[in-house]
Design goal:
Beta-lactamase; 5-stranded antiparallel beta sheet; Alpha-Beta Plaits; 4-stranded antiparallel beta sheet
């Protein structure tokens, strides 16, 4: 029996048709109220992009679903790995079966394939690809669940006190919540902390394979001064958008959450930003006061007596006599940069030995007639604490990479540190540097080799638990 039939029966029992109309009105009012309550809740905020001052607000601390605005935090953590040198733009990320199974919007990556970091960034910014977001999460933290915990911890450090992340993509999860205020903070921090990577948010289109994906942010190129950053939508969240707009010396960051349509959201965003620019001031960097340094009086000292010149022994250039090549595992031999040192700078015993050797070559008979007085304190060379790795390293089997650097010293330092801190995880595997040239720029990649596929995956998973970036490489 339908609701109307039940109400009609009740009206007949009460003997009045008016009871039917009153009852049906109550039902429709209740249904209408429930449909209104089911609509996404609306929030909006606009801040001065330089100072963070709020110039427009509406329900800024109301709990909302972030949807694909989540990917801004995913990119924040990826940019942090790039800046630290633990990965590079050419690093290839492994696509798991779990990542490939994510629902649209997606790039359609195949399980077992790989995607370059730079392509992953562009796929998140333009296509908002969920399979790529999960691939990034698993590559950086071992699992999406572990990555989500790292996202939430980072949010707390950025002052996003009411935000909790449960996945890297923004796919529906009832416990993944945020606020408009927190999203504005995130947008401001990603600009400040990673200005060298923020330009990706301005990309209007991205070509991958045979397809071209256009940015979902319709304000790019259409609304004056827009330089990013991200859209988002689920049925529960409504239409979300974070925008950043620069005009002259002014900058506004705005967030709209819960729009009823994409067009209505964009229209509301433009109205908020135009109003916000009337309330923000042109930013002028504060002038630093010149620091006045008072000269420190230097006490008078007696001049030193002139040094006695020893003409019997010639000056020795240590670059020609004592320079030794450093170990280079997979590149040309590199010589250390050493400045010439005079004999007066060396210990007495070492100076005496050098002078004696050079004098003996010039006048052998005279040197044999003189007695050499041994030094009271023999000179001992300094022993470095850093372990010296073998010049030959077995590079067969699977390998893992833990970082990429412009300077070779940084790569070597990371290898030595990891060998000490993760001795049990590496199980005696030798470290080496792999040289890669990109745009006339040499990159030194820190790697360990000699793994099977299974042991490489396990080693990377364990290293990521210790906050050491890692990914595997097939032979």
């Amino acid at each position: 029996m339908s609701i109307c039939e039940c109400l009609m029966l009740m009206a007949k029992q009460r003997g009045s048709i008016w009871h039917f109309f009153i009852s049906i009105s109550v039902v429709y009012a209740a249904l209408g109220a429930s449909s209104v309550d089911a609509r996404p809740l609306f929030s909006a905020i606009a801040i001065d992009g330089h100072t963070g001052k709020i110039v427009h607000s509406r329900n800024v601390d109301g709990m909302r679903y972030p949807a694909s605005l989540t990917k801004v935090m995913t990119l924040y953590l990826l940019f942090r790995e790039l800046k630290a040198g633990r990965i590079s733009k050419t690093t290839k990320l492994y696509v798991s079966r779990y990542a490939a199974s994510k629902p649209p919007s997606k790039l359609g990556l195949r399980a077992g394939s790989r995607i370059r970091v730079e392509h992953a960034i562009l796929a998140l910014v333009t296509k908002s690809a969920n399979d790529v977001a999960t691939t990034i999460a698993e590559s950086l933290a071992g699992s999406e669940k572990a990555f989500a915990r790292r996202m939430t911890q980072t949010a707390r450090r950025l002052g996003m006190s009411r935000t909790t992340f449960r996945n890297a993509s923004g796919l529906p999860d009832s416990k993944q919540r945020t606020t408009a205020r927190d999203m504005a903070k995130l947008a401001q921090r990603i600009q400040r902390d990673f200005p060298q990577y923020y330009h990706y948010f301005r990309v209007k289109a991205f070509r991958y394979g045979k397809r071209t994906y256009r940015n979902h942010n319709k304000l790019l190129g259409r609304f004056r001064g827009t330089d990013g950053i991200k859209t988002g939508y689920t049925r529960a969240s409504g239409f979300n958008l974070i925008s950043s707009v620069r005009r002259g010396k002014k900058k506004v960051i705005a967030v709209v959450m819960g729009g009823r349509t994409g067009r209505a959201r964009d229209s509301h965003m433009m109205s908020i930003i135009n109003h916000a620019f009337t309330r923000v001031a042109a930013y002028t960097p504060p002038k630093r006061k010149p620091v006045s340094v008072k000269p420190v009086p230097v006490p008078a000292t007696k001049p030193l007596p002139p040094a006695n010149k020893d003409t019997s022994a010639p000056r020795i250039d240590l670059i020609a006599n004592k320079l030794k090549p450093t170990i280079s595992i997979d590149g040309p031999t590199v010589f250390a940069s050493v400045s010439p040192i005079s004999l007066d700078q060396l210990p007495p015993s070492y100076t005496h030995e050098l002078k004696s050797n050079s004098t003996a070559k010039q006048d052998k008979s005279k040197a044999e007639g003189n007695k050499i007085i041994p030094a009271s304190t023999p000179f001992k060379p300094t022993v470095l604490s850093t372990p010296v790795r073998a010049t030959k390293v077995t590079k067969s089997g699977w390998s893992i990479q833990i970082g990429a650097f412009v300077r070779k010293d940084d790569a070597v330092r990371l290898l030595d540190k990891t060998q000490v801190e993760a001795k049990n995880i590496l199980n005696g595997k030798a470290g080496f540097t792999s040289v890669y040239t990109q745009n006339d720029k040499v990159i030194y990649r820190a790697r360990f080799a000699g793994f099977t596929k299974h042991s490489a995956l396990n080693a990377c998973r364990a290293l990521k638990q210790h906050d050491i970036g890692c990914y595997t490489l097939a032979p």
